[in-house]
TrEMBL record:
Quaternary data: Homotrimer.
Protein name: Corrinoid adenosyltransferase
Gene Ontology biological process terms in this record: cobalamin biosynthetic process
EC id: 2.5.1.17
Keyword line: ATP-binding, Cobalamin biosynthesis, Nucleotide-binding, Transferase
Length: 189
């Protein structure tokens, strides 16, 4: 089987139920989610089983859910498709539980922190920023057509998860977060 189809050589791609331009808002949204999924795979490969078994499992589940989220956005006419979104409020609630558990390991924040520390933490921060972009692209899409609202909630919460996980990766590795020194105290505990 050839991996190339030549069907996109004129700048169009297939979505569920039709074809659109490769720079269509729908393609931008699920394409950014795909980019995020690749970075999550990288983070997963950096998390060793000894110290990060829970994160490895969570990241693997998130990768599957990102495919689901992209699939939920890939319908040319979602309002006419009769599709049932795969991303649900239960996934958002589960992310919140994971965030709470990770935050319990992290020291309190007083100032903004610089993305960095360990390679795993840095990668989680990149996941966070790409997730925010995916959320923005999905909101742009939602201005044009119907989008499952749980997809936006999921991406919003997922970026919070990556922030908490990045800090936990540093904590478990004995590496302190670096505060943004020019900032004032912005968080009250």
């Amino acid at each position: 089987m050839a991996i190339y189809t030549r069907s996109g050589d004129r700048g169009e791609t297939s979505v569920i139920g039709g074809r659109v331009s490769k720079d269509d808002a729908r393609v931008e949204a699920y394409g950014t989610i795909d980019e995020l999924n690749s970075l999550v795979g990288q983070a997963h490969s950096l998390a060793d089983s000894e110290h990060f078994a829970d994160l490895r499992q969570q990241l693997l589940e998130i990768q599957h859910e990102l495919f689901d989220c992209g699939s939920d956005l890939a319908y040319a006419k979602p309002e006419d498709s009769g599709m049932t979104p795969k991303v649900t409020s239960a996934l958002v609630e589960r992310l919140e539980k994971w965030i709470d558990a990770l935050q319990a390991e992290n020291p309190p924040l007083e100032k903004f922190i610089l993305p960095g520390g360990t390679l795993l933490s840095s990668t989680m921060h990149v996941c966070r920023t790409v997730c925010r972009r995916a959320e923005r692209r999905t909101i742009t899409l939602a201005r044009e057509t119907a989008v499952p609202p749980e997809s936006i909630r999921y991406l919003n919460r997922l970026s919070d998860y990556f922030f908490a996980a990045a800090r936990t990766a540093n904590v478990r590795s004995g590496v302190a977060d670096v505060e943004y020194v020019r900032g004032s105290r912005v968080f009250r505990n």
